[in-house]
Amino acid sequence: MFTYPSSPPTRNYDSLVGIYDLLATCWSGVAIEMARMWCAERVSAGERVMVVGPGTGADAACMTHRGAHLLLIDHSRKMLEVSVGRCRSEGKTVPQQIHGDFRIQTALEPQDSVVAPFFLNVFSATEALQVMKQLHDSIHPGGRILISDFSVPPRNLFSRLLMEIWHGIPMAFFVLWTGNAFHGVHDIHSMASKTGLEVTDRKRFRILKWGPCWIEALELRKINTT
Ligand SMILES: C[S@@+](CC[C@H](N)C(=O)[O-])C[C@H]1O[C@@H](n2cnc3c(N)ncnc32)[C@H](O)[C@@H]1O
Question: Looking only at Cα atoms, what is the longest distance across the chain?
Answer without folding.
Answer: 48
